[in-house]
Structure to design on (65 residues):
């Protein structure tokens, strides 16, 4: 099992893209957009695709993370 296959076992991202399982690429992509990747969010929130830092902080303050 290669690194990407191992990462896919833990990846909760529901968005279909070529970076799925390639954590370095995913983090770099979202960092450029001032976002966090799906793995920072609970599954029910991840599916809403709001990966903003503002949303993450709101969820954290509400105790959802």
């Amino acid at each position: 099992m290669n690194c990407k296959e191992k990462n896919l076992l833990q990846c909760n991202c529901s968005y279909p893209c070529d970076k799925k399982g390639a954590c370095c690429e995913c983090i770099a992509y979202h960092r450029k957009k001032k976002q966090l990747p799906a793995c920072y969010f609970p599954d029910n929130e991840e599916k809403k695709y709001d990966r903003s830092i503002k949303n993450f902080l709101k969820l954290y303050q509400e105790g959802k993370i």
In short: Residues 23-32 form the longest helix (10 residues). The two ends are 30 Å apart (CA to CA). Residues 35-65 form one domain.
